[in-house]
Amino acid sequence: MLINLCTNARQAIGDEHGRITIRLSERKAADQPVGKSVVPHGSDVLLDLGVSDTGCGIDKETLEKIFDPFFTTKKKEQGTGLGLAVVHGILQKHKGEIKITSTVGVGITVHVYLAADGRKVDKKSKSVRRSRRQ
User: Fold this and answer.
1) CA-CA distance, 66 to 73, in Å (whole number)?
2) pTM beyond 0.90, yes or no
3) If you ran DSSP here, which 8-state letter would residue 95 be given?
4) Who's near 85: CB < 8 A, 6+ residues apart?
5) Would you tell me how many other CB atoms lie within 10 Å of the CB of residue 67?
6) How many other C-beta atoms can be found within 10 angstroms of the C-beta atom of residue 13?
7) Which CATH superfamily is domain 2-118 in?
8) Predicted local confidence at residue 57, as pLDDT
9) How far apart are CA 87 and CA 61, in angstroms?
C-alpha cells in the first residue's frame, strides 16, 4: 500500500520539485473520521498512516472515481489504474479505511486507518498500552 501511495504522490508532483510526507501515528479511534467496523472489540486505538504530497491535487469529480478498477488519469504506458483499487481492496479485507482530502494545485493527503489490535488508550495518562490477552 505504501509503495503505491508514494508512487502516486511522485507522479502527481511530476518533474517539479515537491515534497512527499509519510507519517505513522497511533490515534484514539473516537477522534478519527472512521466507521465502527475499523475498531475491533477490545481496542480503541487506530494506526493512521498518512501520505501527503505537494503535487497537482485531484478535483472533486475525479476524486469520486479513484477507487474504481482501471480508472486512471495517466497515459496508457504510465499505469493501469489498479493501484488505488488494490489499496482499497486490501483495506476492506483488513477492515481498514482510507480517507482522502485534496486541493487542486496544492496537493493531496491520504489517511489509511487500521486497527491497532489489542491496544487501549489509558484515559488518565493518554498513553497507549497493550491489552493482556487471556
Assistant:
1) 9
2) no
3) T
4) 67, 68, 69, 70, 71
5) 16
6) 17
7) Histidine kinase-like ATPase, C-terminal domain (3.30.565.10)
8) 92
9) 20
What is the Cα 62 distance to its own chain's centre? 17
Rounded to whole angstroms, the Cα distance separating 24 from 27 reads 10
Please check the confidence at residue 66 and state whether its pLDDT lies above 90. Answer: no
Joined grid coordinates for residue 83: 493501484
86-117 per-position pLDDT tens digit? 888 888 888 788 889 999 999 999 999 888 86
AA identity, residue 44: D
C-alpha cell at 124: 488518565
Which cell numbers hold the place of 16? 517539479
| Cα gap 102→84, rounded to integer Å | 15
Parse the chain into domains and list their residue ranges: 2-118
Q: Cβ(22)–Cβ(50) under 8 Å?
A: yes
